[in-house]
Fold:
Amino acid sequence: MFGHRKKAFHRVPDTFVRGLFKGFLDASRFDNNPDDSLGFACENETIFQQTVSNTMCTSILTDKQLDRSNCTLYGQIATMFREMILEGRFKPGDTLPSEREIAAQLNVSRIPVREAMKSLEYLGVVRQVRGKGVVVQEADLAETFRTVAPLAVQSSPELLENLFDFRLQLEPYAAEQAAVKATDEEIRALGESLEVHRQSIEQHEKVEEISFEFHLQVMQASHNEIIRSVSEFLGVLQRHSRHMTLWNAQRRLEAYEDHVRIFQAIEEHDAPKARQYMLEHLLQAKRVLPTVPKTH
Structure:
């Protein structure tokens, strides 16, 4: 959609633009009043910074083109800046060019530019900072997953089966890692979750959310950011799958007992058992997945 030069991008050095001003400032010194000279230099330093910003904007966007036949200009602009951020042209903490500068360089109104920045802000890529402008954010994978997950997946029997196939590859390994890496505080939190789980069963309350939290805590105790983030991303589907597998009292009790075994293995730092118990737990849940939920 957009044209890209193959050669690496180079910003115009500050020293180049500063050099344009140096001779002007040197020739304009006020010998009679040093204060006037200082004020003049400060004023022109501000002009210098504005020129650097405009020059950088021009350099960055000269190799970018918009598809004018496509009505979603804001989407193209958002993609353009997302790609430049991924390429490292803008780094966390950098301030993007202003709406006016971007609009002028792309020959569009400021409206699609503004909408593009809003969409990037929604995804956590940038944020508006008062008095500064649009600033690139540090990547937060978990937050991005939480934002897009409800829009990215729709539940179906086939998808839930695929979900369990994926979890069978991921969660036994995570449980194994948790048995090795979990801290005392994380183990204590898992034990507290189990106590809440037990009380909910005794009081005939729903346990789907408690079950999800237990599994998520195991993923967190693996100390693998990708595992934790992916688990949160799949949270919508996982909550629905638990509704499909924990619909009667017997299944809730079985799942609780499985959780106790997994917890004990992690508490004892027995990695092989933690892996095996998690595997067996998920296989059993997958076997009852096609069961139609019943009302109480």
Observations:
- The two ends are 54 Å apart (CA to CA).
- Strands lie at 126-129, 133-136.
